[in-house]
Amino acid sequence: MRIDIVTIFPEAFTPLELSILGRARAAGIVDIHIHNLRDFTTDRHRTVDDYPYGGGAGMVMKPEPFFAAVEAILREARTERPRIILTTPQGRLFNQAIARELASCDHLILLCGHYEGVDERVALGLATDEISIGDYVLTGGELAAMVIVDAVVRLIPGVVGEEESVRQDSFSEGLLDYPHYTRPPEFRGMRVPEVLLSGHHEAIRRWRRKEALRRTLLRRPDLLNRANLTEEDRRFLEEIRRELAEDT
Ligand code: SAM
């Protein structure tokens, strides 16, 4: 996969050189290019923003440098139908399903805004997608772009060592993940659940599934309505509800 990011702060993207993403880049699984938006301006001051029409506070990012940057990327990359993603708090709310959808694309271009945001013509005439990473407002699109890239790249086959662990992650199957433990077996009076020390694979599988359901019921019951539940899951949920009722 090729990923291009257009930003006024190229230096913000060092986290994409580290850890699993850094290794994926070194292995050639993902090819990430960071572009300075100012390189696509035409004036002496490399201006990327201007006053808003109609007045009001703050500056607005100009459309021309974004169009010029994307057109230069497309000339160089020669990919067919890349997804051109404008980061914005007004976009589609990012989640694991969107990450999965983007992970199957061969070219993503992410545009990072600042100030009051980006001239609307970028959304109207350039972007294929507008994505928000949550219902809050950041100062710029760089963190949003990194969140999207990280979540997408780890879903590309070969990036995370054990693909089984990606399949079990929260949201992958519509549930939150089960609790994880490592050594020591007892720490400050807190013991690892006996079943995990038993070596009994089927009992461990059942415990993990039930605890994933318990977590989801207690923390994100909204997810259960959309999850694909098996007969066994429904039995576990009944047991959990009984256990919770007994505890109160
Ligand atoms: N005035 C805009 C609004 O209220 O919708 C907010 C602009 S924000 C201060 C500047 C830039 O940060 C945006 O253009 C976008 O690139 C990025 N940004 C801020 N919050 C974001 C979010 N929740 N998701 C994605 N991008 C965000």
Would you give an account of this structure?
The protein is α/β, with parallel strands linked by helices and 248 residues long. The protein folds into two domains: 2-153, Alpha/beta knot, CATH 3.40.1280.10; 168-247, Trp Operon Repressor, Chain A, CATH 1.10.1270. 41% of the residues lie in helices and 16% in strands. It is built from ten helices and nine strands. The strands form three sheets. The chain has a five-stranded parallel β-sheet, sandwiched between helices. Helix 3 (96-103) crosses helix 5 and helix 8 (201-219) crosses helix 10 (231-247). S-adenosylmethionine binds next to strand 5.
Query: What is the distance, rounded to the nearest whole angstrom, between the alpha carbons of the first and last residues?
Result: 51 Å
Bound molecules: S-adenosylmethionine
Rg is 23 Å
Low-confidence stretches: none
Continuous helix count: 10
Shape: elongated
The main pleated sheet reads as:
5 strands, parallel
CATH topology of the largest domain: Alpha/beta knot
* Count of β-strands: 9
Beta-strand proportion? 15-25%
Q: What is the CATH superfamily classification of the largest domain?
A: SPOUT methyltransferase, trefoil knot domain
Query: Whole-number average pLDDT?
Result: 96
